[in-house]
Amino acid sequence: MRLKVVLIFVLSILIPTAFLAHFGLKAVRSEKSIVESNMRRVHESMADVVENEIKTALGGLSADFLNNTSLLESVLYDQASLFRGQVRIFDSAGRALGGELPKDAGVPVLIKPLKDIPYVIAVYERYPALMEGLEARARVLSLYIGIIIFSAFSILGGSFFTLHALAGEWRKARLKSEFVAAFSHDLRRPLTSIRMFSGMLKEGRAATEDKKKEYYDIIYGESEQLTGLANNILDFSRIERGRKKYLFERRNISLIVADTVESFRTNKGPSWDRIVLTMEENLPAFRLDAPAIAQALTNVLSNAVKYSPPESRIFVKVLKHQANAVIEVADKGIGISKKEHKKIFRKFYRSSRQDPNIEGTGLGLALVKYAVEAHGGRIALESAPGRGSTFSLILPIRG
Question: Residue 379 half-sphere exposure, CB side, CA atoms within 13 Å?
């Protein structure tokens, strides 16, 4: 009888729970490996961006300028500032350009020498706590395995707890992995364009001034996309740490929207003109953070372009409704199902209906929602599959 109880216990509880804990530990280690691999690709892409920016900046300078150490180092430092806090330049003596490193900077995760000049690019990990968190979870799961050995009740309770925890960890691992992969892809494409067209300009393969201007416009547009991507990541980082601050000033919402739309058009190229802008007259000025609203509108416009047919129009309206200023962005794209109306504003979320080849990190709309709510407003969505989408940024008129 005792043998039967032991066998039942071992077969029905101990072994399954031990396997569950074992594969849980394996899942966490796999998550860490995936994140480390993807983060390294991100670091390499950052180093490539800075290296190409440096090549572009130094390409047209004279030998006298390059022999002037202080001028040369000021150029190198300026180009590394694209990823401020994560990328630094060191000379051959190990001196960091731009002053001493913060005490908590740690050691660089990637070092890349620059060609033809005695300097190196050093990339630092902005979020070292991510790897520490993964290691901590692995230690916790190891502790669970020890509990399984000593207590049947702990094993039984631990099995349910571990199952629940693993589901969350697998989901987080998948979201983090998808985010890092998407970020790497979004970073690589404009980087490739910048490298290709700057190389063609450097080699003199642009036969006419019109071609040169076309290449410069492309490089500028891609660099603006990189800047927008970096801004989204930085904003998300500040929000996650509770350090995002807004500067509210009395501004004209119509001017902000008009400038944002014009900048968006310019970045898309001289022949791109798909946005139809209409604005109600005499909208009052009120207190808002202009850069935050401009970035939010840019994110909504980017989504509208990505998920709409190439030649379709995007309609932007600015109007007053009751005591609110409303910015509407309407497209004729693929639309969003009702069950996903709330989900799309979650961080890292990407619709199951969208083309996997479409770029995106899943942060844009989450940042839009955060910015609008920080102004005391809300974001509304009207959409259905195949009927396009209308996003409304509703901002209370205050002050």
Answer: 23
